Amino acid sequence: YSPDLLSYVVSILYPDVGSDEMRLFKRRQALHRQLLLPLDRPLIRLSNAMSSGANSSFAKKLMDVHKALKSSGVKGGKQSLVKGTYCYFHYMQDRFDDAGWGCAYRSLQTIISWFVLNNYTNRKIPGHREIQQTLVSIGDKPATFLGSKQWIGAIEISFILDTLLDISSKVITFNSGAEIPTKAREIAHHFETQGTPIMIGGGVLAYTLLGIDYNESTGECAFLILDPHYTEGEDIDKICAGTWVGWKRLGDNAAAGGDLFVKTAFYNFLCPQRPNTV
After folding, report:
1. C-alpha angle 55/15/29, rounded to 5°?
2. N or C: the chain end with fewer CB closer than 10 Å?
């Protein structure tokens, strides 16, 4: 193991418990204390091991695409960003055509990738059909929803996170897109304390929010948007040039055209809560 907070490699022998990481919880908790590691995040789970194999869900996909960006342009602002690694999921990946209806599904996949890559879960990324089946199974959707091209929103995503990952979420609501900058402080607090990607649902489009640059004195702010509507290959230069990931402000256009935040639309910002565990 090589936790970022340590300057050396640690070798740990665990008993064979299969895939049930929680059976080793007390052992890990004691080791965290011995190594002076924080007790609120998984750093020495089996899935943290240096020899751990790559998850096939992320093969040939891009990670942490926002790191290729330049500054937001907010003068005197403080950046509060996603903490940890995520994978960029977007339209048309894995030879699955969801253009026009799958943006929230892709945002959900990006969020789940954060929990997988940061070792809070070892499950695979659910596909569109599994997402739909889960919503049918819990009684949120009728059987006819399975196999359809119907949209989902922030509330459905909260159900999926709760059902598949046992992750709770908070929702920040806005009566219009024009209100979004008024809660910049609350959004920054989420990234400072939770560090998880936020799903934005509003109007007919969904996006993923990776951070905010906010000047408390002036109120000036910019939002780090990851856009799931991108339909081409895994080309970081093209993604950045097309602002499929980029710093955006109120009044800016989305990468696909039209207002990013529609002033007359209602918005939900779904904020997944990071488990306080080892």
Report:
1. 80
2. N
Residues with catalytic function: 103, 227, 229
Cα–Cα distance between 199 and 272 in angstroms, integer?
9
Instruction: State the number of CA atoms in the 13 A half-sphere of 91 facing the CB.
Output: 19
For residue 263, what are the CA distances in angstroms to 68, 131, 153, 212, 246?
30, 30, 18, 19, 20
Q: Whole-angstrom Cα distance, residue 144 to residue 162? A: 22
Closest CA to 110 of 159, 58, 186: 58
0.90 exceeded by the pTM? yes
Distance between CA atoms of residues 90 and 232, nearest Å = 9
Neighbours of 181 (CB within 10 A): 19
Q: Give pLDDT tens digits for 208-239.
A: 999 999 999 999 999 999 999 999 999 999 99
